[in-house]
Design a protein that fits this description.
elongated; 3 helices; single chain; mainly alpha
Length: about 80
Amino acid sequence: MARGFESKSVESNRQDAEDERASRRSGKRLDIHEIERRQKREGLELSRRRIVHELESATNERRRESLSAALAHLDSELAKIG
């Protein structure tokens, strides 16, 4: 489990460095609101992957319903962010 989070962190750091280089080339830095939006989106996407994984292995019907509701909520939050 920790390995997945570690690889996500490495990927995120690499993406941040790439974004920084791109913004330097274009002459503009990322807005603080854009950074916060990206971080929130990444967190929601990570949560969504975890919920989908749990949903695939859940056998209890009530647990599946709860996970499905959580998944729908995360999808709506991701849609709001764009």
